[in-house]
């Protein structure tokens, strides 16, 4: 399916990082991917592009006049090109929030090499959670090469991070319980062994993904099912994945890859509520002097470092559609200028993450 020598660094939300992990963990079933470095973002929730645009129209804001979005102090802020700021309490974003986010238990991309967000650090800095030895080497060497400066996160910042991660988990566990009272089990929250995964998944095809995930409002639109399908019969529109044709006999790739089917203890050995920030080696605050990012520019400067030093061949980023303002588009690139252009958070989901990966 892919060139084994190509190395890709991927940036994504926790659910996309989980999908990338599953694609590689079950590579004998899914064909694997070139993803070698996983940079996960913190993520409380995400939004539908179509409904976000409608919300703005309702508020008499043209999305073409928007310079950026921020979520701070429990408010959703829209920064306009003339620097005016329109804001609403986060509780008023329900009309464009994606419902699948209500059952998500991962705030800090726990199974990445490096996780990055803003919470816990001063304005203009990124909070960087270093999780793996690979991640540690990258951060250490990129700092040495002057891509950014680091400082230890303050105790207060770390406590805030733990508190908010825990809040997300507790709130969404309640949502899961409420859903399960009237609907089918939210299966990704129950960790099972690899043997059980094999036993269940080897019986499942796209129809099971539809009944267990898509029709349950659990699909995160990550694009993993579309990417792994060996006969390209899965297509994703703005709302959900659909199948056009008959499944290949004995293929179960999409069920294995989906981040909202069963999760094995091998991928995540503990329950999210036990460790709100996951396992990590260190947490630091990072500020880049090279670029202006959403926060401290940590993501972009790490991607630039990886490309410029030849540590990866390409990076998977989420940039903006050339013609449609703020519509996120996933791209695979080795062009540093394009990476810089993709800095900044696009607060909406479309089928992103894997679409750009070459098979
Ligand atoms: C949906 C969403 C919700 C978030 N919620 C929180 C939160 O609750 N708390 C918090 O502290 N941080 C949150 N973040 C992360 C935060 O907004 C910044 O992305 C992060 O702090 C990195 O900043 P930076 O300056 O280092 O990144 P930059 O250097 O600006 O780079 C940002 C990178 O993010 C990628 N990206 C942009 N939009 C998306 C997207 N929609 N999906 C996947 N990748 C994307 C781009 O490829 C770019 O490389 C969220 C991010 C997203 C996408
Ligand atoms: S499901 Fe929603 S809240 Fe969870 S990581 Fe994905 S986009 Fe973020
Ligand atoms: S052939 Fe069917 S089961 Fe296999 S990946 Fe495609 S949609 Fe899924
Ligand atoms: S159904 Fe497909 S797009 Fe939706 S979460 Fe699962 S793998 Fe991702």
TrEMBL record:
Per its UniProt entry, which superkingdom is the organism in? Answer: Archaea
Domain 4Fe-4S ferredoxin-type stretches? 210-239
Q: Which InterPro entries match?
A: 4Fe4S_Fe-S-bd (IPR017896), 4Fe4S_Fe_S_CS (IPR017900), Co_F420_Hydgase/DH_bsu_N (IPR007516), FRHB/FDHB/HCAR-like (IPR045220), FrhB_FdhB_C (IPR007525)
Record's keyword annotation contains Transcription: no
| Keyword Phosphoprotein applies | no
Q: What GO MF annotations does this protein's record show?
A: iron-sulfur cluster binding; metal ion binding; oxidoreductase activity, acting on CH or CH2 groups, with an iron-sulfur protein as acceptor
Q: Which UniProt keywords apply?
A: Iron, Iron-sulfur, Metal-binding
- Name listed for the protein in its UniProt record: FrhB-like protein
Q: What organism is listed for this UniProt entry?
A: Methanobrevibacter arboriphilus JCM 13429 = DSM 1125
Q: What is the lineage of its organism?
A: Archaea, Methanobacteriati, Methanobacteriota, Methanomada group, Methanobacteria
């Amino acid at each position: 399916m892919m060139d084994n020598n190509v190395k890709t660094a991927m940036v994504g939300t926790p659910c996309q990082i989980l999908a990338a992990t599953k694609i590689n963990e079950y590579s004998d079933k899914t064909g694997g991917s070139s993803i070698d470095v996983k940079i996960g973002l913190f993520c409380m929730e995400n939004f539908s592009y179509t409904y976000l645009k409608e919300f703005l129209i309702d508020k008499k804001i043209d999305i073409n006049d928007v310079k950026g979005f921020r979520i701070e102090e429990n408010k959703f802020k829209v920064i306009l090109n003339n620097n005016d700021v329109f804001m609403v309490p986060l509780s008023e974003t329900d009309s464009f929030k994606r419902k699948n986010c209500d059952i998500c238990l991962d705030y800090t991309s726990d199974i990445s090499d490096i996780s990055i967000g803003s919470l816990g650090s001063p304005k203009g800095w990124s909070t960087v959670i270093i999780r793996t030895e690979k991640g540690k080497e990258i951060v250490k060497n990129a700092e040495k090469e002057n891509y950014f400066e680091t400082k230890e996160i303050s105790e207060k910042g770390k406590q805030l991070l733990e508190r908010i991660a825990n809040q997300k988990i507790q709130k969404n566990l309640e949502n899961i319980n409420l859903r399960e009272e009237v609907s089918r089990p939210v299966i990704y929250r129950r960790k099972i062994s690899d043997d059980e995964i094999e036993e269940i998944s080897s019986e499942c095809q796209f129809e099971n993904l539809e009944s267990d995930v898509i029709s349950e409002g659990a699909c995160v639109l990550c694009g993993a099912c579309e990417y792994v399908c060996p006969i390209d019969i899965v297509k994703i529109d703005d709302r959900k994945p659909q199948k056009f044709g008959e499944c290949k006999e004995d293929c179960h790739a999409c069920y294995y890859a989906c981040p909202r089917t069963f999760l094995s203890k091998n991928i995540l050995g503990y329950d999210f509520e036990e460790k709100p920030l996951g396992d990590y080696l260190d947490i630091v605050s990072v500020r880049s002097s090279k670029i202006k990012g959403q926060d401290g520019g940590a993501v972009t400067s790490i991607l630039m470092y990886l490309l410029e030093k030849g540590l990866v061949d390409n990076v998977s980023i989420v940039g903006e559609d050339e013609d449609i303002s703020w519509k996120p588009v996933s791209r695979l690139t080795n062009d540093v200028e394009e990476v810089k252009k993709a800095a900044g958070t696009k607060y909406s989901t479309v089928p992103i993450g894997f679409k750009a990966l070459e098979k």
